[in-house]
């Protein structure tokens, strides 16, 4: 397994994964979603998780958020092995400790903004009057108190995401997991949402944010870059600056040389006579080629 380019050691960790793997399927259909990922996250860190589609980002977030279990390896949450926690207890920890924000806002259309934000408190057993007061206070913090009686279909995308963040925070969770929270937003709304996450971070929450946008790394204190289910880069970064890894991966295009250009011209010239040769052999009736059956792509098997 390829080692991370950076090895960052932190003090007291709230999240600790040791050689965690996640495998789906069996036999020839085996898919390795995570491969021996080791990761320590301290309290009040702001971590941006980057990588191409299918690199294991969402699988990692699901395991950290107690929505899924690792196939192998050990996950310690607050110094306690998650594997030894009963299912009912896991659900309570997930409800009280972790707040989720998704790319799709997942607001219930038949409930107004205030009722949507108060919903997690209802599951917790908080009384109606108290949960509405707590939800209103949280909406005030995210600048959405004046929209409390609006329904989701009357909100802009940015406003909907702010409401979704308020709902994630209403239980006062220690950990916020945000999976592409700005993916459906324009640049102005994205900035509004990220400034809100920045304020949440300053209040003491630990934030794990999945993103494809290198600009988002300006808000993070650390960037984890994933590829093919493994962590390739674990990089500390200054808040306000785009991470070096994000610059290299997302900004720098490969430079062409004169030899590359000449090789391209030669390839085109070689293709011209071949194209003409085939053109002479065309018949009056042109049969549409029968599409070949696409073989199933079998991903790497776990040995």
Can you put this structure into words, describing what you see?
- It is built from eight helices and ten strands.
- The protein is of the alpha/beta class and 303 residues long.
- It has a domain at 43-70 and 84-251: P-loop containing nucleotide triphosphate hydrolases (Rossmann fold, 3-Layer(aba) Sandwich), CATH 3.40.50.300.
- A six-stranded mixed β-sheet has the order 6-7-8-3-9-10, with helices on both faces. A four-stranded antiparallel β-sheet has the order 2-1-4-5, covered by helices on one side.
Short description:
Helices cover 35% and strands 21% of the residues. The chain has 303 residues and is of the alpha/beta class.
Low-confidence stretches: 1-11, 253-258, 264-288, 293-298
Shape by Cα distribution = globular
Structural class label: alpha/beta
Instruction: Look at the structure and give the CATH class of the domain at 43-70 and 84-251.
Output: Alpha Beta
CATH topology of the domain at 43-70 and 84-251: Rossmann fold
Mean pLDDT: 82
First CA to last CA: what distance? 12 Å
Radius of gyration: 24 Å
């Amino acid at each position: 397994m390829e080692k991370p380019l950076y090895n960052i050691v932190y003090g007291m960790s709230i999240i600790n994964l040791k050689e965690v793997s996640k495998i789906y399927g069996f036999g020839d259909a085996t898919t390795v979603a995570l491969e021996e990922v080791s990761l320590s996250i301290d309290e009040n860190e702001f971590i941006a998780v980057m990588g191409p589609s299918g690199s294991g980002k969402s699988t990692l977030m699901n395991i950290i958020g107690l929505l899924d279990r690792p196939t192998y390896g050990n996950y310690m949450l607050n110094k306690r092995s998650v594997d030894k926690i009963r299912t009912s207890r896991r659900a309570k920890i997930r409800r009280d400790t972790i707040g989720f924000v998704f790319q799709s806002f997942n607001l219930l259309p038949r409930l107004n903004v205030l009722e949507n934000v108060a919903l997690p408190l209802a599951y917790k057993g908080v009384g109606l009057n108290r949960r509405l007061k707590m939800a209103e206070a949280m909406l005030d913090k995210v600048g959405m108190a004046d929209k409390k009686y609006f329904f989701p279909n009357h909100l802009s995308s940015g406003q909907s995401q702010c409401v979704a963040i308020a709902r994630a925070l209403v239980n006062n969770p220690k950990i916020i997991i945000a999976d592409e929270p700005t993916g459906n937003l324009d640049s102005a709304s994205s900035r509004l949402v990220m400034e809100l996450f920045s304020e949440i971070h300053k209040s003491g929450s630990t934030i794990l944010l999945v993103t494809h946008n290198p600009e988002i790394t300006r808000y993070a204190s650390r960037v984890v870059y994933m590829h093919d289910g493994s962590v390739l880069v674990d990089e500390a970064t200054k808040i306000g600056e785009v991470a070096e890894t994000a610059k290299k991966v997302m900004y720098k295009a490969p430079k062409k040389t004169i030899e590359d250009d000449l090789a391209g011209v030669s390839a085109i010239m070689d293709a011209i006579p071949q194209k003409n040769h085939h053109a002479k052999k065309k018949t009056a009736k042109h049969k549409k080629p029968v599409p070949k059956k696409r073989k199933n792509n079998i991903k790497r098997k776990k040995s």
